[in-house]
Amino acid sequence: MGCGPDNPHGHHLQVRRDGQDVVAEHVFDERHVGAPGIAHGGAVATVIDDLFGFLLYGMGSLGVTRSLQMDYRAPVLLGRNYILRARLVERDGRKMHTAATVAHETNFVATARAVFVAVDLGHFTEALSSADRDRSSR
Ligand SMILES: CCCCCCCCCCCCCCCC(=O)SCCNC(=O)CCNC(=O)[C@H](O)C(C)(C)COP(=O)(O)OP(=O)(O)OC[C@H]1O[C@@H](n2cnc3c(N)ncnc32)[C@H](O)[C@@H]1OP(=O)(O)O
Predict the structure, then answer these.
(1) Does the first or last residue of the chain, that is N or C, have fewer Cβ atoms within 10 Å of its Cβ?
(2) Does the structure's ipTM exceed the value 0.95?
(3) Whose CA is nearest to atom 20 of ligand 1?
(4) Separation of CA 137 and ligand 1 centre (Å)
(5) How far apart are CA 14 and CA 78, in angstroms?
(6) Which ranges of the chain would DSSP assign to H, the alpha helix?
(7) Is any ligand 1 atom within 6 A of the Cβ of residue 84?
(8) Whole-structure pTM value
(9) Over the chain (138 residues), what is each successive 10-residue block's mean pLDDT?
(10) Domains, the chain, ranges and CATH?
């Protein structure tokens, strides 16, 4: 949904490092519409969540979102280029506190905070096995 190339409804996010931060440019389009002309808040949360995923990946940590708090300060408009930026605020054991901004030029239209929790590979392989079992029992 966030960055993979195969999903035609995905955001195809392209992320780069900038010092300790990760940064992406993104344009929301009609696939992400909420109110007319405005990106759905869930779509904005999706790209921020994915950006945090890249941040952790760059740090060499496997982690999943435990909580995500969005602050929508102004409408995120379709067809406009936004700069997304994320950083690690603090690491506390398994918890990674992260923060992000969404900006157009010098205007911050959304900010976010999240808590990610480090997991091992088993978190993903067990979920995959359960999903496979559910599919084959249908
Ligand atoms: C085949 C393999 C492929 C692998 C390839 C991988 C690819 C990787 C792709 C990633 C792509 C990215 C995409 C975007 C990121 C998602 O979308 S992630 C998906 C959405 N998130 C989830 O599904 C997570 C679901 N939740 C869980 O699985 C479990 O709750 C968790 C997160 C693993 C934690 O469970 P737990 O291990 O039982 O931990 P728990 O004791 O409850 O809490 C851990 C710590 O966090 C604290 N905590 C809990 N909640 C909060 C909170 N709200 N605020 C603050 N602290 C909290 C606890 O107090 C505790 O603190 P300590 O006591 O350790 O100090």
Answers:
(1) C
(2) no
(3) 65
(4) 28
(5) 18
(6) 41-58, 122-137
(7) no
(8) 0.92
(9) 93 96 97 97 98 94 96 98 98 97 97 97 92 88
(10) 15-137 (3.10.129.10)
